[in-house]
Amino acid sequence: MRRFFSHIIFLFILSSFGAVAHGDTVVAVQNIRIRPFQEAMRGFKSASRSEVKDLVISGMTDAKIARKIAQLNPDLLLAVGTTSLSKIKTIKNIPIVYMMILNPESILTPEDPVSGVSIHVPYEMQINIFLKILPEMKTVGLVYHPDRSGYFVKKAVNAAKKAGVDILTEVIYHPKEGPAKFQHLEPRVDAFWILPDISVITPETVNFLLLTSFKHRKPILSFSEKYVKMGALAAVTMDPFDIGMQAGELAEQILKAGGNKGSQRMDARKAVIFINDKIAEKFGIDIDQGIRKRARP
Fold first, then answer.
1. How far apart are the first and last CA of the chain?
2. H/E element, 144
3. Residue 278 scores a pLDDT above 70
4. What is the pTM of this model?
5. Do both 19 and 103 map to the same domain?
């Protein structure tokens, strides 16, 4: 019995020493503290064995940011959000991982030795979920600004085509054009799809689209719980906590490799589903039970 307890104590000391000996430090750079970022940070810390130090850079000059990072002397930098990545992407000799960014390609070049996880849920996954909600859907209407969303729309169209769905698009260059473009699409589509394009999701356009949806019984598919609460049928979005976990796992791999693991960039691996049951009932849509079980209230 004494030998047994001695063995247990030895393993405990060994595991404790291993945790301390790991000794890596991550500096998490944020421009602001908002709830999704904090959720992602919780996920990151749950997947990382490193000591994590927060650095809020709002109001700091680039020179001051560089000095502060030098003082903290991290083994890895974590950029949380677009502004943070823009500020630290040129720092050399410290591996950088990003998270909570929609389109890192707009900030980074393929040659930049920066890794991370975007908040983008792959369109193949989104289309698959939407088809389980609306199995009869054959055509979807989508309005977008080419400079803001052209890259994503191209990927969405290709993903939909593989699944047997046609996406009919209308281009806008000014937010005021939104209602007319959706009106032009309405007779030709089974549903509408809105992406996170600030030229499209103005109050005027969203209100017009909601009225059009109710009037013609054409459901709206979205990217945010907010629009489901307003009257969209469903949304597929990302899970900030799981994105943080992905980034934490990636950071651990990079640190174990001594910081030399090249550039690894990935999309969100988990989708969160929201469904408006009142709209489904109003439109006579019978929601797939498997999807209903996965959906958040």
1. 52
2. strand 139-144
3. yes
4. 0.86
5. yes
Residues 7 and 141 in one domain: no
Asked whether 236 and 130 are in contact (CB, 8 A), the reply is yes
Residue 255: how many other CB atoms lie within 10 Å: 22
Per-residue pLDDT, 61: 95
Q: Within 13 Å of residue 266, how many CA atoms lie on the same side as its CB?
A: 15
Helix H or strand E segment including 83 = helix 82-88
Residue 7 maps to which CATH number? 3.40.50.2300
The pLDDT of 181-196, averaged and rounded, is: 98
- What's the domain range around 258? 2-117+241-267
The answer to whether residues 232 and 257 belong to one domain is: no
149, containing H or E segment:
helix 146-162
Residues 80 and 188 in one domain: no
Q: Could you give the CA distance from residue 12 to residue 14 in angstroms, rounded to a whole number?
A: 5
| 36 neighbors 216 (Cβ within 8 angstroms) | no
Q: Which two tokens stand for residue 90?
A: 């040129």
Split into its structural domains, the chain has a count of: 2
Query: Which single residue is written with the structure tokens 């992602």?
Result: 40
